[in-house]
């Protein structure tokens, strides 16, 4: 159960190899942190899950089923997706942003809004912001609304693509702690993309470190990567991260 990427590769139409023969798993009810430098194929791997990207080779298996046979639209509605900067609809209020997917899934507007209020509370946002537009929120609030929006349809799977990158380090640590608290309560299968190894170690039950060129450098727990780095690339990537946190 959970998500399995089985020997997946993706070459885009212009010939760019984004992901090269990667196999890894995201265990059910756990957080997998997908980490690597810019262009190492993280977003491509993430988008293979909800079929925004189709692999050229290999397959993605979700809860035991090849996702290739699943309806892409239904799949996207059943999987929460948090984009960088929250990915909110600018001309809809906070409440309507959160209520959107439940309504697409057939909930009545009134019911969806009532549900959205509950989710707002779940991510510890004040009810008073419900009628604001995204541009009227702080960066941290926008990120929280993004998380609320992804959770509103109560998906088993939550895909998060560098969701906390755009905020300052203190707000960011707060959001990370919120996510850990939330995850201990809701136990979703989370795939969390970041380029920050410290964030990956902090949030991930497992960590997959990608190498430039879209190959997997190492998959394991933070402890395993730290104690038994697969090679000098892994070692260097980890020590660069630790150096950064000391400088902060
Ligand atoms: N639609 C596309 N067409 C062509 N090349 C693409 C496309 N999308 C991504 N790429 C290329 O594929 C490679 C991997 O991209 P991807 O977005 O998966 O990386 P990433 O690890 O998420 O990077 P970042 O940390 O910058 O978000 C990059 O070289 C990128 O330029
Ligand atoms: Mg990306």
TrEMBL record:
<dbReference type="InterPro" id="IPR027417">
    <property type="entry name" value="P-loop_NTPase"/>
</dbReference>
<protein>
    <recommendedName>
        <fullName>ABC-type quaternary amine transporter</fullName>
        <ecNumber>7.6.2.9</ecNumber>
    </recommendedName>
</protein>
<feature type="domain" description="ABC transporter">
    <location>
        <begin position="3"/>
        <end position="238"/>
    </location>
</feature>
<dbReference type="InterPro" id="IPR017871">
    <property type="entry name" value="ABC_transporter-like_CS"/>
</dbReference>
<dbReference type="GO" id="GO:0016887">
    <property type="term" value="F:ATP hydrolysis activity"/>
</dbReference>
<dbReference type="InterPro" id="IPR003439">
    <property type="entry name" value="ABC_transporter-like_ATP-bd"/>
</dbReference>
<keyword id="KW-0547">Nucleotide-binding</keyword>
<keyword id="KW-0067">ATP-binding</keyword>
<dbReference type="Pfam" id="PF00005">
    <property type="entry name" value="ABC_tran"/>
</dbReference>
<dbReference type="GO" id="GO:0005524">
    <property type="term" value="F:ATP binding"/>
</dbReference>
<dbReference type="InterPro" id="IPR003593">
    <property type="entry name" value="AAA+_ATPase"/>
</dbReference>
<dbReference type="InterPro" id="IPR051921">
    <property type="entry name" value="ABC_osmolyte_uptake_ATP-bind"/>
</dbReference>
<keyword id="KW-0813">Transport</keyword>
<dbReference type="GO" id="GO:0015418">
    <property type="term" value="F:ABC-type quaternary ammonium compound transporting activity"/>
</dbReference>
């Amino acid at each position: 159960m959970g998500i399995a990427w089985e020997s997946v590769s993706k070459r885009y139409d212009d010939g760019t190899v984004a992901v090269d023969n990667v196999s890894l798993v995201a265990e059910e009810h756990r957080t997998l942190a997908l980490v690597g430098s810019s262009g190492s194929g993280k977003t491509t791997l993430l988008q293979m899950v909800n079929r925004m990207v189709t692999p050229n080779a290999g397959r993605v298996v979700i809860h035991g089923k090849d996702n290739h046979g699943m309806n892409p639209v239904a799949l996207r509605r059943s999987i929460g997706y948090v984009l960088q900067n929250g990915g909110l609809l600018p001309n809809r209020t906070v409440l309507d942003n959160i209520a959107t997917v439940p309504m697409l899934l057939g909930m009545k507007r009134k019911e969806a809004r009532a549900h959205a209020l509950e989710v707002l509370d779940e991510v510890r946002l004040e009810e008073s912001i419900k009628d604001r537009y995204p541009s009227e929120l702080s960066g941290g609030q926008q990120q929280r609304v993004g998380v609320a929006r992804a959770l509103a349809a109560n998906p088993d799977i939550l895909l998060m693509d560098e969701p906390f990158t755009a905020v300052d380090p203190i707000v960011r640590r707060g959001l990370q702690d919120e996510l850990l608290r939330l995850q201990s309560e809701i136990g979703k299968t989370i795939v969390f993309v970041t380029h920050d190894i410290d964030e990956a170690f902090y949030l991930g039950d497992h960590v997959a470190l990608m190498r430039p060129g879209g190959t997997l450098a190492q998959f394991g727990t933070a402890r395993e990567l730290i104690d038994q780095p697969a090679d000098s690339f892994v070692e260097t990537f980890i020590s660069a991260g630790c150096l950064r946190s000391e400088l902060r």
